[in-house]
Each structure stands twice: as C-alpha cells, then as structure tokens.
Design a protein that fits this description.
The chain is an alpha/beta fold. The relative contact order is 0.04.
Length: 704
Amino acid sequence: MATLHDIVAVEAEFTALLNNPRRPLSRFIEVSLEYGRMMAEQDPRGALEALSLAIETLHDPPAPAEVEVALGLLRTMRAVSSQLGITTHELDAITREQHILDAELVAADPGQREALSRRAAAVRFDIGDVDAGFRELIEGLRSCEELALDDLASDMLLAIRRIPITEALIADIEALWVFLRRHRRGGAWELWCLVALGAVRLKVGDAITAKMYLRRAEATLGGATAPVVAALVNGWVALASGENSRARISFAYAARVDTTDTRVRLLTAAGLGEALLALGRVDEARKPLSEAIGYDVGDPNTVARCHELLSQIAADDGRFQDAYEHLLFARLLERPSVQPAAGARRRRETVVDLRDDVGEAPLPAEPPLRTVSAQIAEQAIVSEVAEVALRADPPTVIAEMDLQRVDGAAAAHRGADAGTVTDADVDADTDTADDDVANAPGVANGDPVDRPLGIDRLELVFEPIVENSSGLIGAAAVSLRLIRADGYVADALALALASHAELRRQVTRHTLRRVCRVLSAWDKVSLLVDVSHCELDAQLVDLVTEELAAADVDPGRLVIVLSGAGLARSAENVEILNALRELGVGVGVSGLGSSFTSSDVLLSCPVDVVTVDGDVFELARSGGPQRRVIDAAASLARGFGFELVATGVADAAHFDLQVQFGCHGVQGPFVGEAMSESEFARRVTTASRELADDLDDLDASADD
C-alpha cells in the first residue's frame, strides 16, 4: 500500500510532467498510471482525469512497446469510471481494449473478449442504448469460445426477456442463432442455440415453436444438468403453453441454484410465484412474488407482472385497497415487450412511458396503457364498488338494484309507439335508477367510501353498427358502463374481472336483463352483448334463457359475443355455443386479426357474427398474414353464412377498406360514437322516418 510520502512524490512528478510541454511521453504515461492507481479510492475524479490525459496521448491501438502500460491505463480507467458511473469513459476504455485484442498485440486470456462484450452490453443497456447493447452481445457471440458461451448466452437470453426490443432487432438476433447453429456444432452450442431460438420465438408470441425448440434442447442434455437460464426459458415457455406443473419444476430447479446474479433471482422468484398461482397454490405463491417485487435490477416488466399477480391474490382475499396499490405500481412500471420498428405504424395498444409519473397521481379518464395490467388497473379504480357488492349477503347488489328502473322503462316503452322512446321516459328512468342505487342493500349512508354506488351510475351505452348494403343502422354493440361522479367511464363487465366470479356473473345478468327489456320495446334493431368476462359454461346458457323468458323478446335479435382469443377449440365449448343457438340467439366472436388469427375457431364453432378490428385492414392492405386472415374469413363468411363486422373504423379510408374486404357491417367513430339509450333510439327513429319519407316520395313520383 502506498504511503503518504509515495503519493506526494508521484503527484509532484505527475504535475511537473503535465506542465512541461517537452515532457517525455513514455514517462508521462507511466507516472499517470501510477498516480491513477494511487488516487483511485481517495480522489477517483482526479485519478480519472489523469488516466484520460495519458490515454489520449496513445494511438488506438497503441504501438507494441506501449501495449502493457496501455492495458494498465485502460483497465484502471474502466474500474474508476464504473465506480463514478461515467459511462462514456468506461465504454471508451472497453472499446480500446477490444481493439488491442483484435489486433492481436497481446494474447487474450480465456473469456477475456467475451467479458468485455458482456460489460459493454450491460453499460449500454443501463443508459438505454438497447440496440447497441444487443450489438455488443451479437458480436461477442460471433467470435465466442465455448468456454465463455454460458455467460454470454445467458446475458443475451436474460436481456431478451427483460428489455423491450424492436422487431428488426429480434429478427437480427434470430438470424444470429440460426447462423451459429449451422456453423458451431457439438458441445454446448447446440443446446444454447435451441434454447435461444425458443426464447426469441416466445418473445414474439409464438409459444408453439418455442416449445418445439425447448423439447429438442432437453434431448441434447441427456443426463447433464441444464444451465440455470436455460431452465428459466423452459419455465417461461411452459407457462405460455399452459403446462403449469412443468413450469413449476423448472423454476424450482432454478431456485435451488446458488447464484448472486440478482437478475436471475428476480426472474426465478417471479416465475415460481406465477406457476404456483396458476396451479392454485396461492399461499405458496405469496412468498416468491413478494420477494420478486423487492428487487431493483432494471426489469420493470417482471416486477409489474408480480404486482399484478399479488393484486389478484389481494382481490380474492377481499383486500381491495391492497389490490389497487399493487395495480398502480404495475401501471407505472410496465413497458411494451416488443417495440415497432422506427417509422412503423403503431397499433392502439401502444404503451406510453410512465416511469417519471410517481406518487399517487389519479388515473386519467382515457388510460394510455393498454396492456393486461392497465386493464386490471381500470377495474381497480372502482374496487370499492366490488367490495360493497361482495359484502352483501347474498352478493347480488348489482343485479337487484336496477330492477325498478328496468321495469319502469319497459312499461314506458310498451306504452309508447313501437320503436320510439321519449326523452322524458329516459330522464325519469334515470332518476329512478339513481334512487335505487343509493338505497341498494349493503350500501351505507354517510361514509363516502361505503356508498360509491350512490355516487356513480350504471348506464347502457350503444355503438351503432351500420349495414354496408343499405347504409342504415341494423344493430348496435351494447355495453354496461359505470359512470363515476368524477367523469371516469369504465366497462362494468371489466370491473368485475379481478374481483369475484359471482360478481362477474351478476354484472352479466344485469346487462342481459336490461338489453332484453330494451329489445322488447324496440323493433328490428339487433343488439350485440360481449360476455367474454363471464365463464363459458352451462350457467351462462341458463342465464340467457331466464332473461329471454322474463322479457318475452325475440331471441333472434340478441347476439352473444365472446372473445376469439379465449374461445379454445373443444367439444365442451361447441356444445355450449350450440345450446345458445338453440335458444334462437346469435353467437358472435370478436377480435379476428388482432386477438386471434387462426381460422380453426371459425371452422369448429357455430358463429353468426365475427368482428374485425379496423386497424387490421390497414395492415392487410399491404399483404402479409393479416391479408390472408381477412381473405380467409371473407371466404368462410360466404360459405358458412356468418357476417363480418369491422370495428373501430375511425375515418373514410378505413371505411373504404372494410368495404373492399367484404365486410357486411361497420362500427366505430366514423359511423357513430358510443351514445346513450335515448340518443341511440332517437337516431334509429330519425333514420327510419327519413327512409319512410324517401319511399313515400318515390311512390308519389311513380303515381305522377
């Protein structure tokens, strides 16, 4: 250890050389290195300045005679700049050292090149330069020796899982591993290439191909022990494939591996908690999930997912305030997993960066985050409503509280002319509903937290569906919305998603009851009701049967809509859908081209209406998979007799596209914004009268 006398002597010589314009460079470099090493702990900024001055006097790469001292300068500068967090100096030092090794001016130690690539990638990831970080790993893997393959491949796979990546970069990473699999055979190369290709396919949502790669990877192991990151990838693929027991085994294996890598420990705890929760082992899942949210290693998506799962556990326990807090954290943390390439058209699901939004800021009226956690966060806004409903005994507050309004509305409708609803009917009806809500069972008077139902109101919202053939409104998509006193609007069916299965069913029953009463008062117009949040089982059939009978309505004008993403091909599902159709109601499937793309659902399930997201047509116009999906659906529609409805159509260009692709109906802001019951009735009545007037004019002209 240097004494004070040594430090003073070296500092004096360094200062003298620095101020001497004719200083001998070789001696200046040597003294700068010695001074930098001595001052690294006591005065790291002064040491870094001295080291930088010396390095700038060297060529890049340096002359052979200067290589040894140059390496000393660079490695000392790397350590000091890392300590200070000055990434530019650290990256410069790494790059210069790589140049020395590339020029073969010194023999590289085993794993030395790969260690430099790993560190450079880590620094670039930390500063947000994702593309450059992956380029460092890609170049490192191209020249990698098998001895260092485990560490470099692990870093690549962990980064793929943790960091948002552009589509173009994903393609480059996949091309790298395909290349390596062809040109590097034997040893650990085959295993890592298969695991990496599986991780890439999983990143883009192709769990089936990912599973195939992981199965092949397992076969290459024989009786050998899998690397911990390979086990993690296997667990992620198993979760995505619904193989929860297999996932738990993989994550449990990873948890037994002794590692100091906090990235691995976070992902292991998160994966194990999710697998246990999927298996219904809630009490066991709490510990790893709680451990995971305690890590701060630059992995917001994983931590956000753990908060989501903990919110579900809290909601199931009836701890809605805890659920809301977890969801708020998830909302602030989550990022898109795959980012569109620069200049690419962004879909509606585009996520905004909320990292700077901290504290207890209220959620906006139009939540910009459209991922799963954001949807649950919307539901958490009205967690008090769910809590009041679940406290009731039995928990049927929502179903019971509006009967008076519906009965009154039905009587008013039956007393009026067919197809007409007056503003007075609706206004009086709404006043009655507010009174019913305020006096609902389980809602206390006085404490504002205990009477959210008295402040908010439930309303049916209608989105008109216009027939392309006639230009008239032929149907409407109906949803039950919770209108809060502060102006926030949320889908009432979605509100129940994170709380309780019985509450979901009660909200569905309430929606169907009101829709059936409306149908009994109106002529001709059909109504589509999305019940995707409700379990597809025999109880749903019973529920629809009861409400149709109670309202004495033509079932042919009711369409029950289910999400195509959740409509798995199975004999049980087909049986339930057939039972619904036997009642006379139509069956609709939503999300073609966005939520699901396979035609298996359309071929195997009895459907009458299929909705297509309007954005899909823009993508399909340039060809590709979306074009094939839409063309196949249009062909099936002609053959099987179901109708295609374009949704979310916002402008004339999208309107023209959906006509070109053969849709039968269109829904969206371009043909009509979502509106109240009275507004919709007025619009339908006005359109019908205008059509009748036109027909009268034609008849009069013919008589003349």
